[in-house]
């Protein structure tokens, strides 16, 4: 569930949609928050890969992947640390992690077509040390647990746009995260829908802010800000 943008400022597929919303959380419901949408997206991308070898888009661009891997290297995360990519989409980030030497990495997505696409791309890259699973993170299997690092690039954004009780789904996401992540484990989230302050509120129970990562800034009409938020939380 992580397909979309060609750079940090272009993550418009799941961009903030506020104002005039009938919901109390400030987001307008969108098809981008539904499983049907992502199933259709990855069915098309799978066909495109099979026909042309095109791996598809990278959510938030290549810089977002480099930013996260750079943080992991800076903090000397062991290469055998267990890493979970939540909503792995086409699995390109898993490929990058493997190329940097990480050897205990897992990608999950609730779209079977996404997992099939990821598998095809990983096979093409000649990699074999990556685990892939069809999993709904809001209702994860009991085997999905014990991770040192969990990573989200756009999945929490999409869940926030679900037309069917998104507020409750966000709460369930936090509960699932708490269950699969080890105590003192790290959660790295990149979002174009949520500000730093809002994410601090969303993940206030059981997590504390460890670090804010630098992201591109924009200036428009005399105002400036960040196009995306990238935070590292630690489970308490």
TrEMBL record:
One term under GO cellular component: cytosol
EC number: 2.1.1.-
GO annotation terms (biological process): methylation
Subcellular location: Cytoplasm; Nucleus
Residue ranges constituting the Methyltransferase domain according to the UniProt record: 81-209
Biased composition annotated in UniProt, kind: Low complexity: 13-30
Residue numbers spanned by region Disordered: 1-32
Methyltransferase found in the keyword field: yes
SUPFAM superfamilies assigned to the protein according to its UniProt record, in alphabetical order: S-adenosyl-L-methionine-dependent methyltransferases
Annotated function: Protein-lysine methyltransferase that selectively catalyzes the trimethylation of EEF1A at 'Lys-318'.
Official protein name in the record: EEF1A lysine methyltransferase 2
Source organism of the structure: Monodon monoceros
Name of the gene: EEF1AKMT2
